[in-house]
Amino acid sequence: MPTTSAPGGTGRLFGASIKRREDPRFVTGQGRYTDDLTLPGTTYAAFVRSPYAHARIAAIDAAAARALPGVRAVFTGRDLASAGVNPIPPGWLIPEMRIGEHRALATDRARHVGEAVAVVIADSPYVARDAADLVVVDYEELPAVAAATAALASGASQVHDNAP
Question: What does DSSP say about strands 136-141 and 55-61: parallel, antiparallel, or unpaired?
Fold first, then answer.
């Protein structure tokens, strides 16, 4: 079995302790991450996410969030769809494969826990998060299936109506 050597040809790569040049600055708090950069005109996003594995989105009330000082915009899936934002295309297609529509923000149903249903754009990350907490989503919880074998059963809840 061939062995791969660590940089400089000494020792083995797998399982070896390899010294990296960037580590000292990050370990000592001297590193800079993209979150540390603030450019003029920077805005911040905070997402409102579904707490349900499967739910119909009856209504979204973002009025309180929009009224918060520092909020630039609040968008829902319906806002994006009505503005002409198309679903996200799949990375691949297999012949005869049926796939459900996937949008940046859910429009009619949340199909997994944590699916984004709205986004707040604000002048600071704190205002964005506070405003996202003010968005009220009226969900109608739907049956969810967690096991693949149960999803194949007759009458099982469907995630996408067009892709059983």
Answer: antiparallel
Residue range 8-55, pLDDT digits in tens = 555 567 888 888 888 888 888 888 888 888 889 999 999 999 999 999
DSSP letters along the chain, please? Answer: ----BPGGG-SBSTT-----TTHHHHHTT----GGG---TT--EEEEEE-SSSSEEEEEEE-HHHHHSTTEEEEEEHHHHHHTTPPPPPPS---TT-------SS-SSEE-STT-EEEEEEESSHHHHHHHHHH-EEEEEE-----SHHHHTSTTPPPSSTT--
Residue 23: what residue type? D
**Hey, what's the torsion of the CAs at 5, 11, 14, 20, to 10 degrees?**
-90
The CA angle 114-117-119, to the nearest 5 degrees, is 105
